[in-house]
Amino acid sequence: MIVAVNPSSFSAGNPVNMHEPIAYLNGQFVPISQAALSVFDLGVVAGASVTEMVRTFRHIPFCLNEHLGRLEQSLQIVAIQSPVDRDELRGICTKVITENARLIPADHDLGLIVFLTVGQNLTYLGRNELARARTPSICVHTFPLPFELWSDQYETGIHLVTTSVQSLPDQVIDTRVKHRSRLHWHLADLEAKKIAPGAMALLCDQAGNLTETATGNLFVVQRGVLRTPAEHILNGVSREVLMKLAMSLGLSVEMTRLKPVDLRDATEAFLTSTPHCMLPVTRFNGEPIGNGSPGPIFQQLIGVWNDLVGLDIPAQMRDGAKSRSNLPRPDSTETSPRPE
Q: How far apart are CA 322 and CA 29, in angstroms?
């Protein structure tokens, strides 16, 4: 049972409610511990849901409008009718962030998740519950960013490996959709870990072109030009930010087809993704990229990204990881919903 909570009661003068974050679920603000989907929901039964992830900087959501615009596109493609419009959803997101940011340190930040499912399983409900089965579920919640997952990688970089698992063709699921059908990514990352402990899977399409990882978009640097896959990828919000920052520095950016040899022979490479913004890729299929360390273009780009958001992103990750050091350190290559 969902118990409604008036979010206005989460105030500095009411410490009883301040210990637990709130979420928005199907028209109600609830304590996060009570934000539970039915086991009949097709988001659980079939992974039939679309999602977005936003992060905050200084507790302010970054590129919220861009994420909500992409969510609308996903909903349209998969024919889910949202019960709230964009303005109402923006207000819900802002309220959840504002309330939950009070529970974290001022120098920490939040990840914000929005997801909608296609409804509930008619087989479990029966024909008399057809309307209920066709009613989408919608949830908005936050979590404290786990800085320790990425803090070391700004210096050590990421090891990418190609696997036998290929990206899903557009004829199966349109790659413009940010969805939670993740089993192929789980299998790819399991294979990647067998190839090299700590590695992350980079999938190829059916023609052998590089696409993306489970959580980010790929860039390679060749002769000073940034090149990124043009097709069979999710159009990442962070990818768009990086391309604009690169052009502001006078760097050329090409959206093109890339083969594994292009990454192998690159002087630099990096991934873009919502929670960490960008991380260097320093190894590919067991071999170093460039000199095996983050390169000068990466340093330039993370520097202008720092300027854009008004804080030192790698330093926030390092300092935040230290303050969270009493927590268990999970495997940073675990597959998660796409946060690009």
A: 32
Core vs surface per residue 235-254: b (16+ CB within 10 A) or e: ebbbbbbbbebbeeeebebe
Quick: pLDDT tens for 281-324: 999 999 999 999 999 999 999 999 999 999 999 999 999 999 99
Question: Looking at the domain that runs over 153-323, which CATH code has it been given?
Answer: 3.20.10.10
- DSSP tag of 208: S
In the block, residue with structure tokens 């974290």: 104
Q: What is the pTM of this model?
A: 0.90
List % helix, strand, coil for the chain (3-state, nearest 5).
35, 25, 40
pLDDT of residue 131: 92
The label of the residue with tokens 């009070």 reads 102
Question: Could you tell me the CA-to-CA distances from 188 to 20, 162, 182, 259 in Å, in that order?
Answer: 35, 9, 10, 18
Quickly count: other Cβ atoms within 10 Å of residue 62's Cβ: 20
C-alpha to C-alpha distance for 64 and 71, rounded to whole angstroms? 10
- Res 14: pLDDT: 33
CATH number of 7-145: 3.30.470.10
Q: How far is CA 297 from CA 45, 221, 312, in A?
A: 44, 8, 17
Asked whether residue 37 carries a pLDDT value surpassing 80, the answer given is yes
Q: What angle do CA 60, 216, 90 make, to 5 degrees?
A: 30
What whole-number distance in Å separates Cα of residue 212 and Cα of residue 327?
A: 30
* Alpha helix ranges (H) inside 102-227: 122-125, 130-133, 153-156, 183-195
Look at strands 158-162 and 225-229 and give their pairing. Answer: unpaired
Pairing, β 158-162 against β 200-202 = parallel
The mean per-residue pLDDT over the stretch 215-223 comes to: 97
Q: What is the pLDDT of residue 330?
A: 46
Q: What does the pLDDT look like over 85-136, one tens digit per residue?
A: 999 999 999 999 999 999 999 999 999 999 999 999 999 999 999 999 999 9
Parse the chain into domains and list their residue ranges: 7-145, 153-323
Cβ proximity of 278 and 271 under 8 Å = yes
Are the CB atoms for 68 and 121 separated by under 8 Å? Answer: no
